[in-house]
Amino acid sequence: MRYVFILLLCSFDVIGSQCDPQSNKQSIYFSNGMFNEINDISISVYQLEKELSAFINPSAINYEISVNDSEQWLLQILEVAKQKLGDELSMFFIYLSSIDKAPEWFLEAVDEVVRSSFGNVNDQDLRQHVSEYQRAIDNCSKVLVIAHSQGNFYANSAWSQVYSRSFGNSMFEQRNFRSLGILSVATPSNYVGHQLLDEGDHLDITDYVTLTNDAIINIVRNSFPATLAGNVTNSNSSQDPLYHNFVSAYLAGDVSGSVIGVKTLAILDGLEPGPLKRAPVASSSLKSLAYLPNEQILEAEFVSDGSIYRYYGVPKSTYDALMTATSLGSYFYFNVRSSYRYKKVYEGNP
Questions:
Q1: Interhelix angle for 104-117 vs 73-85, to 10°?
Q2: How do beta strands 180-185 and 206-209 pair?
Q3: What is d(CA 217, CA 188) in angstroms, rounded to the nearest whole number?
Q4: Cβ–Cβ < 8 Å for 296, 320
């Protein structure tokens, strides 16, 4: 009897659900860009929280930091410029901000340094980021990474690792639960996240904001033309002459600041927690149900094979009608099963 009891416990852990449908945990991680010391990063997170407070209730978000070592490639270009320019070093910043007008030696130096060093990811930092995101997701939080500059290389790498794992200690696959999103700011990359199961299924939980006059990203694009194009233009000036700084160029931008807020809210709305704590129901076809009112997601476990599906965009009125129906199975079959977008999140027992 003891061995049967242990087996039942193990079976429940493998296919059991975890997250309370009534909790709505959300975490925003800021992944820093170049030349950001820890104090600068803290200021960036403070200003980010302040900017987003106009769009999101601050008490509903847990703000965290994903720190990575700052790239030094720009300093390498500066050393080359010192040798070439001498007393006219001020031209260095003019060339940076107007890369199309820079002399050939400057373009060659930039191209060599950018190609050899830009985009490198510190494995130790990346492992820490992945561990933090996985821990938050396993604790039923939806996670949005707002990455700036080089932080986008870390965010994209973390995306691949997080979505290739199983959820917690269960047999659920993370790629079935869109719990991690990315908002790329001033991105030097040519993509944000990637497909999970179906083509385009990541597009509403990833996005980017790059200023058209961001001198640093324009430099990168000069060497890597596939770098995502600038998609926002501010009409106000910035304290940062290179229009790359996260706070003074992006958050303080008269257009980019609000765009970051709108896109942050949109991505959070598209995220979902992991497997849910479902309640048993009296039905010959449905074994258990759970409903997420904020996300309008209905999760259903079936009697026949133990498979679990999620149905998206289900109004609370439909869920309430389902739970009060004379026959849950019949109401589900005629009003839910083929009426909403769905996805199988657990295969069950064939």
A1: 160
A2: parallel
A3: 6
A4: no
> Rounded to whole angstroms, how far apart are CA atoms 217 and 230?
9
The CB density around residue 318, as the number of other CB atoms within 10 Å, is 20
What sign for the dihedral angle of Cα 324, 325, 327, 328? Answer: negative
Question: Which position has the higher pLDDT, 222 or 298?
Answer: 298
- pLDDT tens for each residue of 71-90: 566 666 666 776 767 767 66
Characterize 242-275 residue by residue with b for buried, 16 or more Cβ atoms within 10 angstroms of its Cβ, and e for exposed: bbbbbbebbbbbeebbebbbebbeebbebbbbbb
The per-residue DSSP string of 168-227 comes to: TTSS-BGGGS--EEEEEES--SS-SS--SSSTTTTGGGEEEE-BTT-HHHHHHHHH-TTS
Characterise 58 by phi-psi region: left (phi > 0), alpha (psi -120 to 50), beta (else): alpha
Secondary-structure breakdown of the chain: helix, strand, coil percentages, each rounded to the nearest 5: 45, 20, 40
pLDDT class for 3, splitting at 50, 70, 90?
Answer: very low
Task: Find how far residue 256's CA is from the centre of its chain.
Answer: 18
pLDDT of 343 over the 90 cut: yes
Q: Could you give the CA distance from residue 8 to residue 120 in angstroms, rounded to a whole number?
A: 47
Q: Which two tokens stand for residue 57?
A: 């209730």
Token pair for 184: 């790329």
Residue 90: partners with Cβ closer than 8 Å, 6 or more residues away: none
Name residue, tokens 């320019």.
85
The pTM (predicted TM-score) of the whole model is 0.86
Closest listed residue to residue 153, CA positions, set 68, 248, 41: 68
Q: CB-based contacts of 175: which residues, under 8 Å, 6+ apart?
A: 163, 164, 196, 197
Q: What is the mean pLDDT of residues 106-129?
A: 76
Residue that is written with structure tokens 């659920």 in the block:
172
Q: Please say whether the beta carbons of 63 and 44 come within 8 A.
A: no
Whole-number Å distance between alpha carbons of 280 and 208: 42
What residue type is assigned to position 261 of the chain? G
Closest CA to 259 of 279, 230, 222: 230
**CA 204 to the chain's CA centroid:** 10
Give the torsion through C-alpha atoms of 116, 119, 125, 128, to 10 deg: -150
Asked whether the predicted pLDDT for residue 110 surpasses 50, the reply is: yes
Q: Which amino acid appears at position 233 of this protein?
A: T
Rounded to whole angstroms, how far apart are CA atoms 263 and 244? Answer: 19
